[in-house]
Amino acid sequence: MSRDAFWHVHGLIQHDPIFQSSGPRPQQPVKYQLAAYLIRFGSNTSIRTAAILSLAEGTVYLYTKCVCSALRNIKTEHLFWPGPVHKEFLKNEMAEFGFPGAIGIVDGTLIQLVDKPLKDGWAYFCHKKFYAVSDPNLSHELPTKTFWG
Asked: Is the pTM of this model over 0.85?
């Protein structure tokens, strides 16, 4: 995640009530909780994240729980089914690639890389914990999920 993206997400969730302490001790700043969340879900276990950040494993769990809650609270503002105009645009775009009427395709095809790319290598690290690229050209040969509008 880029620095700008980090601060953008931080700005979206920083005022969520989940980050307001209800006890005598204040919570850690949202930026630290978000960083722990990203490290945890980037590719590390809770134990590894705790070691990297010098936190207790339970603290990593609590930070992750708070950030997940805050993200769920803003999901309807940022995640939605396309409206009629955007849906028509997507249909036209997908038709050019041989999928008339489709508004999106999900393909889980990953091609594992031998080494981490030199430029922006972190961007190629996938959820399966290796460096990979996805090849959309293979999607017509392999199982996919197509969303029809």
From this structure: no
